[in-house]
Specification:
2,3-Dihydroxybiphenyl 1,2-Dioxygenase, domain 1, alpha/beta, 8 strands, single chain, about 130 residues, four-stranded mixed beta sheet
Length: about 130
């Protein structure tokens, strides 16, 4: 039985990386077990780890579900200097999505459900909040 998960990205400049992800996630890490390592619990049992080291090439993207993808795109462009961040959509896919990179080359992104009803239902099921 799988009951939790962690996803790790590596950054070559840990202090800058921790601050970058703090800004991206709009909060401080939940856990800093030792130097060069920080963790955020994004959802119950789903952790994003930022570790000092050499970034992995061609991995990801890690996409995070958001309420308003255009608002979040504008925010990361302004607050984090993200330059390349195009939004995509296909008729048969229920979400809009976009991918961008952190300063160390880790591929990240956001997605947003097209249907407000589906978005609210997913939030209710996952976090128990009807929004």
């Amino acid at each position: 039985m799988i009951y939790e998960m962690t996803i790790q990205v590596r950054v070559s400049e840990f202090e800058k990386g921790q601050q970058w992800y703090t800004t991206l996630l709009k909060r401080e890490p939940d856990f800093i077990p030792h130097e060069g390592f920080a963790e955020w619990e994004l959802l119950p049992g789903c952790w994003l780890q930022v570790a000092e080291g050499h970034p992995s090439m061609n991995s990801g993207p890690i996409r995070l579900g958001v309420l308003d993808i255009e608002e979040e795109r504008n925010r990361v462009q302004q607050e984090l200097g993200v330059e390349s961040f195009e939004l995509h959509s296909r008729e048969e896919v229920p979400v809009r999505w976009g991918t961008f990179a952190d300063p160390w080359g880790n591929q990240l992104g956001f997605f947003e459900y097209k249907s407000e009803a589906e978005k609210k239902e997913r939030i209710r099921v996952i976090v128990g909040d009807s929004q």
